[in-house]
Amino acid sequence: xxxxxxxxxxxxxxxxxxxxxxxxxxxxxxxxxxxxxxxxxxxxxxxxxxxxxxxxxxxxxxxxxxxxxxxxxxxxxxxxxxxxxxxxxxxxxxxxxxxxxxxxxxxxxxxxxxxxxxxxxxxxxxxxxxxxxxxxxxxxxxxxxxxxxxxxxxxxxxxxxxxxxxxxxxxxxxxxxxxxxxxxxxxxxxxxxxxxxxxxxxxxxxxxxxxxxxxxxxxxxxxxxxxxxxxxxxxxxxxxxxxxxxxxxxxxxxxxxxxxx
Length: 261
Known about the structure:
alpha/beta; Cobalt-precorrin-4 Transmethylase, domain 1; Methyltransferase, Cobalt-precorrin-4 Transmethylase, Domain 2; 2 domains; 5-stranded parallel β-sheet; 7 helices; 10 strands
């Protein structure tokens, strides 16, 4: 059995209970060495085989999984954050299915959640932004034409930008070309939830300058949007005048059959 496990955003105690249990009982662990906190491997049982996938190709990773399965061993494929985002797990799962190797998937805490905690921010605020765009800059790996930064920027929603620290000058240009004002609040969060976590508030037009001045070149997430510094309307959910399925407010609203909040 192969278990895909989200390692969490960095802090050792932010892995799920299920994920920790799978790591502790694994016979083989293949971990994303460039991003996963190595302290998570300290509880591996004696004799556990550990592989750093940063130095491996897809074919080499699959070969380890295949050999492990033939020997009746339990394998953990340990990815950073939650591997549903930029984890390159679909290609692994498809090959395992072709080879009839069973697998499952244990989710993890993504770095964008850790970044919100570091910023003490809420990405969705009434009358400010009710949508979150998770994306990255186009570099050596292209993005679909309709998903380029300037296209998303037109929506003025909260943007969480991964894998783009080497392209910050172009990022600023594309954000402003798409519609963000140069003074739109932004932030760089370096190694969210790790002991060395750092937060750098800035604006859309000072992202590159801020990163350069603080020597931040990788392992950071960029957050853009008015939710970082804006007035907002109180949430209706806890407003005494707003009726919900569970609480009667003063607005006189009555739920119809089959209707829910």
